[in-house]
From TrEMBL, chains A, B:
It comes from Oliverpabstia intestinalis. Pfam families: LacI (PF00356), Peripla_BP_3 (PF13377). Residues 4-58 form the HTH lacI-type domain. CDD domains: HTH_LacI, PBP1_LacI_sugar_binding-like. GO terms for molecular function: DNA-binding transcription factor activity; transcription cis-regulatory region binding. Keywords: DNA-binding, Transcription, Transcription regulation. It comes from the Bacteria. This is LacI family transcriptional regulator.
Length: 342, 342
């Protein structure tokens, strides 16, 4: 059926070309049965509409973009893959856009949203300490993925994530349960107002709940200028920590950071978990196959990816209002953590 | 200069609107000097053409797509990041499109090239045993990245890669130099006619050069249906190998496969490198921070990514003919390989 045109479809369905166009463009002014008949005919004919002609009418390129901040974070590549496949199912193009660490992801979003005439946007990573004013400049639906906005300035935004406070509390409590009292914490830059803040609060609250004094010296923040959620940063930050503190456990807020930290410990002659327990966050495959395999909080990446796409498409269709979806993380106990011997 | 229209550009250059259109659309029927003048004026004016209107005329959405086959291969995510940033610099959108293992990447390419009216395409992964006939159906410029086509059916295609035969020979020779004779080989599916075939030839030729008989039983092919270039597949394939063969070294054609293999060896109580050397291919960060750190062939991913984008944009502009760019890999010797003790 190659070479089939909109006219052929119209003829086949005994309707006018404009009716076919209304069906294709989801126009409300069409009989639902007619619409169904036309869409079925299009499908059967393998008719590929001329997108550009459609775009002109609809002002709509049927594309969404995924803005990724933190290129070192391989956790995101799995999520991007899931999002792309969901777009494919819906007939959307998935434009990938990386944001430099120094750039404001919100400025980038507003710019590309206009330039590329996107229908929607997904944010992966970023700190989201945005003002309400900036948020209101955004003219298209967007969803923050793996970023929790509850109680944050961006609380009006749609998001799909785990409860970062709760999961972080859970991991800290688990390490305390193993007898650790000196628990170092490797985390996001100090000014991170979303994930970083919530996970720090979870860590701190758990310590206090168990009468362990919170010590700022045990917290090692990523350097906003030098670090990303990468193996290299975990390695570097652990080397720094080793110079200034003693501890029996380390909890890093990404598996990549935890793996880098393990490598630095090994090179310093400290064995994991015998002399130091190490725990991560995310549940990446790399941690599962690492030696020692990594104790972590598994984020349900498949569910989060699908829910992100689902929520975004509902927002695009006007079927939903922005809301916050929270998924449960899972503490996975592996070889990198053990009972404190001191 | 916001709000500048095609008419303003025409006026500024003392030409008609249709001439500006011809310049923008790379139409052959235009005086080269006039074309240059117009393009310069457009650039100076920061004129952002109305994409949808242009598409209709130009058949051109200023987008390229990156087709990724092998979602488990985190090596590609770094490359995708580099490609995206190069697109950004040129004002192109970078559409990400995953190809399922079962799909023919060439069919997908032909389809999305038309549907999304792309200006160009980059292939990452895939086997490329395409017939010349299929290749000739492709109407837009494309570049194979990290896929070597020299001597392959797709030799007319542009590609940027290392010399897979040579690099594979290099790694095998290195292991032979350590005294290994029983070198297992974990690689692409048997029917892979590009990278897989070339790397197998490199392995085989090195063995024969050193009078070591090639034994098919030591070669462990990925199962086309079950495996990807993932940690999990390396783990599974090593478990299979351990059941049927003895060997003192393993060379896997991806770092992910090698890391999975290390994990399976550990669980079988075999220490790396004391009892078995393990080598990978790619030079991923994960291998650098693994314990033991992984001996590998580093592909110059930054150079390959930039050259891929550069070649593609040159092809799009008609400045280049398809050609094959070969980069040098680097053998990085780390902890996972050692002298054979048997």
């Amino acid at each position: 059926m190659a070479g089939m045109t909109i006219k052929d479809i119209a003829k086949k369905c005994h309707v006018g070309v404009s009716t076919v166009s209304r069906a294709m463009n989801n126009h409300p002014d069409i009989n639902p049965e007619t619409k169904e008949k036309i869409l079925k005919a299009i499908e059967e004919a393998n008719y590929v509409p001329n997108n550009s002609a459609r775009n002109l009418k609809r002002n709509d390129a049927k594309a969404i973009a995924v803005l990724v901040k933190g290129i070192g974070n391989t956790f995101f590549s799995e999520l991007v893959g899931i999002l792309e496949r969901e777009c494919e199912k819906k007939g959307y193009s998935c434009i990938l856009q990386y944001v430099d660490e120094q750039e404001d992801e919100w400025d980038v979003a507003i710019r590309v949203g206009k330039e590329k005439r996107l229908r929607g946007l997904v944010f992966l990573g970023g700190s989201f300490s945005q003002s309400q004013e900036k948020i209101s400049q955004m003219e298209i639906p967007c969803v923050l993925s793996t970023i929790c906005t509850v109680g944050m300035p961006g609380a009006s935004l749609a998001s799909v994530s785990v409860d970062d406070f709760k999961e972080s509390y859970k991991m800290t409590e688990y390490l305390i349960g193993l007898g650790h009292k000196k628990i170092a914490f490797i985390t996001a830059p100090k000014n991170d107002a979303s994930i970083g803040k919530l996970r720090l609060m979870g860590y701190r609250t758990a310590l206090e709940q168990y009468q362990i004094p919170y010590r700022e010296e045990l917290v090692c923040y990523m350097d906003e200028k030098r670090d990303t959620y990468s193996y290299q940063s975990g390695y570097r930050l652990m080397q720094e920590l080793l110079k200034r503190e003693t501890f029996t456990a380390v909890y890093a807020t990404a598996d990549t950071l935890a793996i880098g930290a393990c490598r630095a410990l090994k090179e310093a002659g400290i064995s994991v978990p015998e002399e130091c327990s190490v725990a991560g966050f995310d549940g990446m495959d790399a941690g599962r196959f690492y030696i020692p395999s990594l104790t972590t909080i598994r984020q349900p990446v498949e569910e989060i990816g699908k829910a992100t796409a689902g929520l975004l498409f509902d927002l695009i269709k006007g079927k939903e209002k922005p809301r916050q979806l929270i998924y449960e993380g899972e503490l996975i106990q592996r070889e990198s953590t053990a009972r404190c011997k001191q």
